[in-house]
């Protein structure tokens, strides 16, 4: 049996800002080497702070962090870590190659080593033929790939991606997922990503952690998390938000209900049997229902259960 080594271990980590803001609280998590790991949570739940302490951009007040078995407090481990922030680090006035050369120099690469690594990265990310073009002329997907290449120029073992596909069209998103998967399978890279897209976490990551108020409230593979919820999800769309709000007040006496605008999500062990009963309750209250359906819980339903909010709501803020 292959024993998976640990890439990240956080033990009871706490980080506060000023006197009152506890950004992360007694946070413990373990990420296996070569894993794609997704952090999800509402705005302000502590995802960025977690990434900041892991990448040495912020110092934890309490607790221990180990990267590949080495304590972050007593070792300089920055070179093991690559970061691709949500705001692109690409200089639009430089060509793709110039951006990579600059990033390589920042990391201390020189001469032949630098040149070879830049060409390797251009080839790796399929950017050779555009290497001499100004990056401001690149498409969104190409810019993201250049960002990734810049994050990997110094051979990190651990890559942090902050919302890697935000703003990309579905085709560019799929393409980037493929690239990230190849980094994992071919190069054994460990990837931590934060995302606002539930399907990204579901499709791309091996494990998912939901954060809420600075803590991890659920963790596991997407399948494990969905199974934990069990049962069915009933989606009941009302004619407007006010109707849905009223219906929620009635149903919450009997069921676990969450609302996202005009739609209610009711979790039930026996969805198909419960649906007619629910519709009857709503009919007797004269609530107007537009449509209703039963489905297996999706990752978004699990997220709703643990955070009380729909992830789609977060992206609007
Ligand atoms: N530099 C800072 N100074 C003061 N408070 C901060 C700072 N950075 C974060 N916080 C606070 O810490 C808490 C956690 O914030 P954090 O940015 O880690 O959350 P997040 O989950 O990444 O949110 P988002 O999805 O909005 O990026 C929030 O209450 C936030 O206001």
UniProtKB/TrEMBL annotation:
<dbReference type="InterPro" id="IPR003439">
    <property type="entry name" value="ABC_transporter-like_ATP-bd"/>
</dbReference>
<dbReference type="InterPro" id="IPR017871">
    <property type="entry name" value="ABC_transporter-like_CS"/>
</dbReference>
<keyword id="KW-0813">Transport</keyword>
<keyword id="KW-0547">Nucleotide-binding</keyword>
<dbReference type="InterPro" id="IPR025302">
    <property type="entry name" value="DrrA1/2-like_C"/>
</dbReference>
<protein>
    <submittedName>
        <fullName>ABC transporter ATP-binding protein</fullName>
    </submittedName>
</protein>
<dbReference type="Pfam" id="PF00005">
    <property type="entry name" value="ABC_tran"/>
</dbReference>
<dbReference type="Pfam" id="PF13732">
    <property type="entry name" value="DrrA1-3_C"/>
</dbReference>
<dbReference type="GO" id="GO:0005524">
    <property type="term" value="F:ATP binding"/>
</dbReference>
<dbReference type="GO" id="GO:0016887">
    <property type="term" value="F:ATP hydrolysis activity"/>
</dbReference>
<dbReference type="InterPro" id="IPR027417">
    <property type="entry name" value="P-loop_NTPase"/>
</dbReference>
<feature type="domain" description="ABC transporter">
    <location>
        <begin position="8"/>
        <end position="238"/>
    </location>
</feature>
<keyword id="KW-0067">ATP-binding</keyword>
<dbReference type="InterPro" id="IPR003593">
    <property type="entry name" value="AAA+_ATPase"/>
</dbReference>
């Amino acid at each position: 049996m292959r024993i998976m080594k640990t890439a990240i271990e956080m033990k009871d980590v706490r980080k506060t800002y000023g006197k009152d803001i506890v950004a992360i609280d007694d946070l413990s998590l373990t990420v296996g080497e070569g894993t794609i790991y997704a952090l999800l949570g509402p705005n302000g739940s502590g995802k960025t702070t977690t990434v900041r302490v892991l990448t040495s951009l912020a110092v934890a007040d309490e607790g221990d962090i180990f990267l590949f078995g080495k304590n972050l407090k007593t070792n300089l481990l920055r070179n093991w870590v690559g970061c691709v922030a949500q705001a692109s680090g690409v200089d639009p006035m430089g060509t793709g190659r110039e951006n990579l050369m600059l990033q390589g120099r920042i990391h201390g690469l020189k001469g032949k080593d630098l040149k070879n690594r830049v060409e390797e990265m251009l080839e790796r990310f399929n950017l050779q033929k555009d290497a001499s073009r100004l990056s401001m002329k690149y498409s969104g997907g190409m810019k993201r790939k250049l960002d990734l290449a810049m994050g990997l120029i110094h051979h990190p073992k651990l890559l942090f991606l902050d919302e890697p596909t935000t703003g990309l069209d579905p085709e560019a998103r799929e393409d980037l997922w493929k690239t990230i998967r190849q980094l994992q399978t071919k190069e054994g890279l460990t990837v931590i990503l934060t995302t606002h897209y539930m399907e990204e976490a579901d499709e791309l990551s091996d494990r998912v952690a939901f954060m809420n108020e600075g803590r991890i409230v659920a963790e596991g593979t997407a399948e494990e998390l969905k199974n934990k919820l069990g049962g069915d999800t009933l989606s009941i769309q009302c004619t407007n938000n006010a109707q849905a709000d009223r219906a929620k007040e009635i149903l919450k006496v009997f069921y676990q209900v969450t609302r996202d605008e005009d739609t209610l999500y009711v979790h039930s062990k026996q969805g198909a049997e419960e649906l007619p009963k629910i519709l009857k309750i709503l009919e007797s209250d004269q609530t107007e229902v537009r449509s209703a359906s039963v489905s297996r819980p999706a990752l978004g339903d699990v997220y709703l259960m643990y955070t009380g909010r729909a992830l789609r709501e977060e992206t609007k803020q």
